[in-house]
Predict the 3D structure of the following.
Amino acid sequence: MPTPHLPDVQACVFDAYGTLFDVNSAAERAKGALGARWQPLADTWRAKQLQYTWLRSLAGQHVDFWQVTGDALDFALESVKIADPALRAELMTLYLSLAAYPDVRAALERLKARGFRLAVLSNGSPRMLAAAVENAGLADLLDAVLSVEEVGIYKPHPSVYQLPVDRLGLAAGRMCFVSSNGWDAFCAQAFGYRAVWCNRFGQAPERIPAQPAAEVAALAALPDLLARGA
């Protein structure tokens, strides 16, 4: 995948879960109770969380991401043969304070210092996003934190990708959209963003339209990728 410099970008819009925040960190912090099952639980929890957003969007049965996250956790717990209401409650609480990846703060600080406007666009509910941003100490760097709850449907519906355009008053082509979820980056590019796939996990590219404009292995590479232009 090409890794060109991306001129004429004025703002960066970030996915939250898996891009800024480590979705495995809740289960990892509970591995004293989960033991060796923490990673299989984390993997299933994340997979079902995404699947439920797509299925609910297709079926027209929207609920917020907190409900989806709880439903996905219930499936994951049953899959690894755990029935423990107290542990379920602990895991849900831990999800509100997911750890940020180590490269996040420094990358956002560099972008902010260079004059880029910064926003988050996420499936997360406003409450979840506020908690995650506060816990990671990122609030001072962000110009907007946008939730799909404003439109009542999940990514990759085009109405979700329209939210930063409306809030920041910039055309999608003047913004960089950054996601570690390949499907999200590909779909954002199809919408019109200059999408950057932060391929943290070395995944194969998706077989869907509109290949992202660039690919990086970590957010630390993003500031150097963006060349400010008029």
